[in-house]
Design brief:
Layout: H1 2-12, E1 20-24, E2 26-28, H2 40-49, E3 53-54, H3 69-74, E4 79-81, E5 90-92, H4 110-120, E6 124-127, E7 133-135, H5 142-149, H6 151-172, H7 177-184
Parallel strand pairs: 1-6, 2-7
Antiparallel strand pairs: 1-5, 2-3, 4-6
Protein name: LARG2 glucuronyltransferase
InterPro entries: Xyl/GlcA_transferase
Main location: membrane
């Protein structure tokens, strides 16, 4: 049972006393109806058969690539991954972790900026070996449509990203340089 597994992981990893973000590997299906896999073995079988994919691998692989799905396939214990540009995993964190930056509402950069902030605060990024989630297909949101169609929207998002980087630099000094240089090289 997923919630039992998460509760167990939280206790075993001593999350209440530790700065860690537990990453739940994300997958997706293109089918509107899906029998949810009951185990990791069943999920891997569906992945191999092509009824599931690693999340957004065909449109935005950078968002979840640092999860290291190849390692996850055989992992039996949580493993640590490093922050990389555009990483936006789904995470389980303590309630007192940094909040989402409210500048990033709508589509774009909400999860990316959050993980960046967690990394800047030296949270460990730990992938859970037996957890997974599956994204189901749905119609595009109003906000992603605005992002795709409006140069003004994309320009505003870029301005907010720059402000966010400046704030990180003020709060974390030289340690925040890696985020700025990573973003500039994109």
């Amino acid at each position: 049972h997923p919630s039992y597994y998460h509760r167990n992981s939280i206790q075993q990893l001593e999350l209440p006393q530790r700065k860690a973000a537990l990453i739940v590997p994300a997958f997706e299906t293109l089918h509107y109806r899906l029998t949810f896999p009951k185990s990791k073995a069943e999920l891997l079988s569906m992945l191999d058969m092509g009824s599931l994919y690693t999340f957004r691998y065909h449109v935005w692989p950078k968002g979840h690539a640092p999860t290291d799905y190849a390692k996850w396939r055989t992992a039996t214990v949580p493993y640590r991954v490093a922050w990389q540009p555009d990483f936006e995993p789904y995470v389980v964190v303590r309630r007192d972790c940094p909040k989402y930056d409210q500048r990033f509402v709508g589509f774009g950069w909400n999860k990316v900026s959050h993980i960046m902030e967690l990394d800047a605060q030296e949270y460990e990024l730990l992938v859970l070996p037996n957890a997974f989630m599956i994204h189901m297909p749905h119609a595009p949101s109003f906000d992603i449509s605005k992002f795709r169609l409006s140069a003004g929207y994309r320009g505003c998002l870029q301005t907010l990203r720059e402000e966010f980087h400046q704030d990180l630099s003020r709060r974390y000094g030289a340690a925040a340089l890696k985020y700025l240089t990573a973003d500039r090289s994109l």
